[in-house]
Design goal:
Elements (H helix, E strand, L loop, with lengths): L3 E9 L5 E10 L4 E5 L6 H9 L6 E6 L2 E2 L10 E4 L11 H11 L4 H15 L14 H13 L5 E5 L7 H18 L2 E6 L2 H7 L2 E6 L2 E6 L1 H6 L4 H6 L6 E6 L4 E4 L2 E4 L1 H4 L3 H4 L3 E6 L5 E2 L5 E13 L4 E7 L2 E7 L10 E7 L4 E4 L8
Parallel strand pairs: 3-8, 3-9, 6-7, 7-8
Antiparallel strand pairs: 1-2, 1-4, 4-5, 9-10, 11-14, 12-13, 14-20, 15-19, 16-17, 16-19, 17-18
Helix pairs in contact: 2-3, 2-4, 3-4
The structure holds adenosine-5'-triphosphate (ATP).
């Protein structure tokens, strides 16, 4: 049986705004799930309903098979870390971490053991006597996580916990949180708008848009098998290239090149004849030059961006634009014309109207 079940969960705020529509998810014990999507898509609202900080308008929330809609946050056995990790400024790291257990009236020896163990997991052992102001942003966030982790809870919720950190600290904390999760085994739900965080940390990702779940899957599933244009464009950096074009007899035309996509359309060739589709390919999926078993396109190089391990090449093909990712050693020159190939298996087609992937 699933540990957490969200069944047709909806949130309608008192002002009538319908923020979350029929959210369904089953989570196994110990899983690390990431809710990802652009600002306002309903991720925090869903997390707050799970936490018991926000009423569930309708639908069922079950913990271990038992309906928990009416339970308060404490009864649910939940700990939460927020974006703003307000620590008590006048208390040491030790006291900040110990605070929750002290409130519960736990005995001193027990608290001491728990604080030291939590500090060890979080790499804070050497900082226990410091005040928060003498810590870096990343260290402060670790204290906030420690404060939440010290109580024994089944469910650990995090809402954009890294958004106050700089880019370098975020990268470090990403792997640290993954490590902490491995050590504690707590069932975790993590909210972010950052697809890189989602891809690097999650066992499974829930992609949301405008209150609706778009797709649930492993990072690999979302990257290779997006169900629609939104997921395809949201996962991956730089994003997937999209080019709209009308199908004529199994062919489309892009920047003067005619591409035979009949193999991709298969039995649906008739259905799409005369209709608009969206041709998609990832910047990193291309090969320079003309290849077999591939869609071959030509473009003019407008700009190149050297990133060290790769180069982003911005090209135009007639009135269409795309980004290609190449090895720095064979990056083309600005203003040159290039041919490149997209292997058939790396081509995605989406319905021009529904924006669903064509399989
Ligand atoms: P962000 O990353 O910006 O926090 P989010 O995906 O977490 O975005 P939510 O905070 O869940 O989004 O908000 C979802 C939608 O619900 C937004 O359009 C927001 O304006 C709306 N909303 C949030 N709280 C309320 C409220 N108390 N009353 C009415 N609408 C609200």
């Amino acid at each position: 049986m699933a540990y957490l079940t969200l069944r047709d969960i909806n949130k309608i705020y008192p002002n009538g705004f319908h923020a979350v529509h029929n959210f369904n998810l089953e989570m196994e014990r110990g899983e690390f799930i990431v809710f990802v999507g652009p600002s306002g898509c309903g991720k925090s609202t869903t997390l707050r309903m799970i936490a018991g900080l926000e009423d569930i308008s309708n639908g069922d929330f079950l913990i271990d098979g038992v309906r928990a809609n009416e339970q308060g946050p404490r009864e649910r056995g939940i700990a939460m870390v927020f974006q703003s990790y307000a620590l008590y400024p006048q208390m040491t790291v030790y006291d900040n971490i110990a605070f929750g257990l002290e409130l519960q009236g736990a005995d001193e020896e027990y608290i001491d053991e728990k604080v030291r163990n939590t500090a060890r997991i979080l790499g804070l052992t050497d900082y226990l006597d410091r005040l928060p102001r003498a810590l870096s942003g990343g260290q402060r966030q670790r204290v906030a996580i420690g404060r939440a982790l010290i109580r024994k809870v089944g469910i650990f919720l995090m809402d954009e916990p890294l958004s106050n950190l700089d880019a370098k600290q975020r990268v470090t904390m990403r792997s640290e949180i993954t490590q902490i999760h491995r050590e504690t085994g707590a069932t975790t739900i993590y909210v972010t708008h950052d697809q890189t965080e989602a891809m690097t940390m999650a066992d499974r990702i829930v992609v949301m848009k405008e209150g609706y779940v778009q797709q649930v899957g492993t990072p690999r599933e979302l990257y290779f098998h997006p169900v629609n244009l939104f997921v395809a464009g949201f996962i991956g950096e730089p994003p997937m290239n999209f080019i709209r074009s009308k199908v004529r007899d199994g062919k489309i035309s892009i920047g003067g090149a005619e591409l035979d996509i009949s193999g991709k359309l298969g039995g649906q060739q008739g259905k799409y004849n005369g209709k608009e589709i969206i041709f998609g390919f990832r910047p990193e999926a291309i090969l320079l030059g003309r290849r077999e078993n591939a869609c071959v396109l030509s473009g003019a190089v407008e700009l190149t961006e050297m990133l060290g391990d790769n180069v982003n090449v911005y090209i135009t093909m007639g009135d269409q634009q795309a980004i290609l990712k190449t090895d720095p050693h064979d990056a083309p020159d600005t203003d040159s014309n290039i041919d490149f190939s997209i292997p058939f298996e790396s081509v995605y087609l989406f319905d021009g109207e529904t924006e669903r992937v064509i399989l």
